[in-house]
# Entry
Amino acid sequence: MSISASAASSAFAIADELLNRNPRLSKLKLHKLLFFIQAEHLAWYGAPAFPESIEAWKNGPVVADVWHDRPSKGARSRSIPQDLDDVMRSVVARFRGKSGKDLVALVHEEGPWVEATEGGTVIANQIIPHEAMREYAKRLPKELEPIRDALKGHPRGRKFVADSR
# Structure
C-alpha cells in the first residue's frame, strides 16, 4: 500500500519549529523526533508530515537534507498545520525525559530502522519506507491514545518544552 506524498509541511519547517520551541535541542534528538513525528503522522492521518526521506544511519533515523543543512535556531516560525502541531506535541511530550542517546537505543531495539538495516548489520543510509513507519507507529502502546485525544482539544498556542539533552 502506497501512502500519499502530499505532505503538510517540510522537515525544515518542523525542525525550525522544534528548535524555536527548544533552542537547546541536540541534533541527535532533533532527528529522532523528526522520525517519530513522521511515523505518528502517518499512523494518525495516513499521510506524511513532510516529503523528505528518512534514512537509516548508524545512529538511527536521519533526515539527510536537514542533517547536512541544519535549520537555524531562532529562525522565523512558519505556520504549522493543526494536525501536525498535535502530532509534534504528542511526540515531544512522550520523549521529554529522553536524551538523543536514549532515542538512538530505542530505535535500535525494534521497528523500521532495525528492519531497514537488517538488525543493524547493513547500514548504507537506506531510505526507511513510509509504510514501515506507519505500521510501527500503529503498534505503539494503546495508553498513548488518551494523550492524543487530549492534545486535539488542547489550546494550540500553549508552549511545550522538550528535553534539551
Summary: Residues 1-6, 159-165 have pLDDT under 50 and may be disordered.
